[in-house]
Amino acid sequence: MAKNQQNTLEKIVSLAKRRGFIFQSSEIYSGLNGCWDYGPLGVELLRNLKDAWWKAMTYREDIEGLDASILMHPRVWEASGHVENFTDPMVDCKQCRSRYRLDVLYEGFNEKRRKKIADAYAEYLAAGNGDAEAFKAQEREKQMEIAGDALADQAPVFEAMNEKQLLVCASCGGTGTFTVPRKFNLMFKTFVGPVEDNSAVVFLRPETAQGIFVNFQNVAQSTRQKLPFGIAQIGKAFRNEINTKNFLFRTREFEQMEMQFFVRPGSDEDWYRQWRDIRMQWYLDLGMNPEKVRLTDHPEDKLAHYAKEAVDVEYLFPFGWGEIEGIHNRTDYDLGRHQEYSGKSMEYFDQEQDARYVPYVVETSAGASRSLMAFLVDAYDEEELEKETRTVLRFHPKLAPFKAAILPLVNRDGMDDIGLKLYRDLQKSFKVFYDDSGSVGRRYRRQDEAGTPYCITVDSQTLEDQTVTVRDRDSMEQERVAMDALKGYLLEKLAD
Ligand code: ATP
Questions:
Q1: Can you tell me the distance from the alpha carbon of 391 to that of 394, in angstroms, rounded to the nearest whole number?
Q2: Has residue 393 been placed in a domain?
């Protein structure tokens, strides 16, 4: 990561803590890696984000909501493929016991070292192992990538690299000190009931999607929905990530916002295209900078085992582009597998076509925590003013933790009483903030840092004509608004 980008992330993490957005979990005990707490402003931001998603996804006639439990029958995870496939290759440094996800270790090497690894891999192939011809045909950069992949797949290649001391531990600097790669399952295990034996093992769900699949028939029958229709859910998911990093980007506990759209086979490609556009537009409608968000298709040879087509919504974080949402055409894979493992029919009877079939699924799978981080980074701005630098979070009003702050200019002449009354009135409809201490300039800056879009000031003119000033966070311009028109004014700004 470039230094100034690193600084930007550090500044955002520090602002997030200082202003009460995000705290490290269990901070007074030196923190728990990969876990974060949402403070008073953070929890509002997260709720607003989830509400915006919930409204966009379920306030329509063809999507139903669901809240499934986190613990599920262990067979669910066998059917879904998670017990077998939800693994990352992991290596340990024997010297200092640091643990790495292999691809992360490899990515951390500079060009020179990666070239050496590619050369060593070429040598290994030339000695009669693997497919040397295919390797030669690749571009240089691609070759390095292949060598990286090979480390994960083939223990002997890895040992050769180890022997040549090409692998360096970032923590202790040891070379050639790694264990061979092992598969590490990312699901957290626990036990139901008092006996901790194999028959009592359950997992904390690593995604919310399976709760939707196993309830497909329940929802279809109780709502009498006809295909195509979807089921949406927001909830916590847990992954025992080997390396957590980049603040909220990769954590061990996080929240997902997922929707599975069940469709007639044959209409899946069309629905997939529609959902990719709808989901991309959602980020733009919430004010995300169009130059920093993009769709990236998964090439066919990199598709997950269940997917026919897949695209990521990516955001340009200070450390580079990163996925914030995946849209997948999952075919009838999931319902088919649950039908097979549970022995219960997942078929749908299509009256129009007089046919019975297992529906196809188009999935939109977003991270609430990860997109919160994207919106936070996107909103962060430092503006050079005449005498100072103004730090401001330019959230869309719908996302902003406080919609307005009420600031009496001074604490006397009845301005504070009017301010308090206004605060209590507006509080019935909006999350608002009241602040009567310090200079008004300083109070504006504090609200800029909290991302509050409007500051309402009660001044001496208010005493005469019942108007207040409303200062816009972004333009810093002020206009006078009658106090009794304020609610309508804010409602209009928050409307779709
Ligand atoms: P990655 O490749 O980054 O691990 P993924 O492809 O495994 O992500 P999905 O399984 O498609 O991710 O999960 C859907 C969404 O859930 C992601 O787009 C992301 O927003 C969120 N997500 C997944 N893993 C994490 C995590 N460890 N921390 C925070 N959010 C996550």
A1: 10
A2: no
Work out which ligand 1 atom sits closest to the CA atom of 313.
18
> Beta strands 432-434 and 404-408: pairing type?
parallel
* Cα(239) to centroid(ligand 1), Å: 9
Does 284 lie in the same domain as 138?
no
Q: Both 244 and 327 in a single domain?
A: yes
- Structural element, H or E, at residue 222: helix 216-223
Residues 281, 346, single domain; the answer is yes
**Is the model more confident about 154 or about 47?**
47
Q: In this prediction, what percent of the chain has a pLDDT beyond 90?
A: 70
Residue 174, CB-side half-sphere exposure with 13 Å CA sphere = 15
203: CATH:
3.30.930.10
Structural domain contains residue 289: yes
Atom of ligand 1 nearest to the CA of 367: 20
How many domains are there within the chain?
3
Residue 111 CA, ligand 1 centroid: distance in Å: 27
Do 239 and 305 belong together in one domain?
yes
Task: Quote the mean pLDDT of the chain.
Answer: 92
Closest atom of ligand 1 to CA, residue 252: 27
Residue having the nearest C-alpha atom to atom 13 of ligand 1: 365
Distances (CA, A) of 362 to 140, 185, 306, 331: 37, 26, 11, 7
Q: Report the DSSP beta bridge partners of residue 24.
A: 36
> What are the pLDDT digits (tens) for 81-135?
999 888 888 888 888 888 888 877 887 788 888 888 888 888 878 887 777 777 7
DSSP state of 183: E
Residue span of the structural domain in which 470 resides: 402-494
- Tokens for 210, please give them: 């399976």
Query: Residue 53 C-alpha to ligand 1 middle, in angstroms?
Result: 17
Minimum-distance ligand 1 atom for the alpha carbon of 258: 14
Q: Is residue 156 in some structural domain?
A: yes
Interval 127-145 mean pLDDT: 77
Residue whose CA is at the smallest distance from ligand 1 atom 8 = 323
pTM to 2 decimal places: 0.89
Pocket of ligand 1 (CB under 6 A): 207, 239, 241, 250-251, 254, 256, 323-326, 365-367, 369-370
User: For residue 256, which atom of ligand 1 is closest to its CA?
Assistant: 16
Residue identifier of the C-alpha nearest atom 26 of ligand 1: 250
Instruction: Round to whole Å and give the CA distance between 379 and 238.
Output: 27
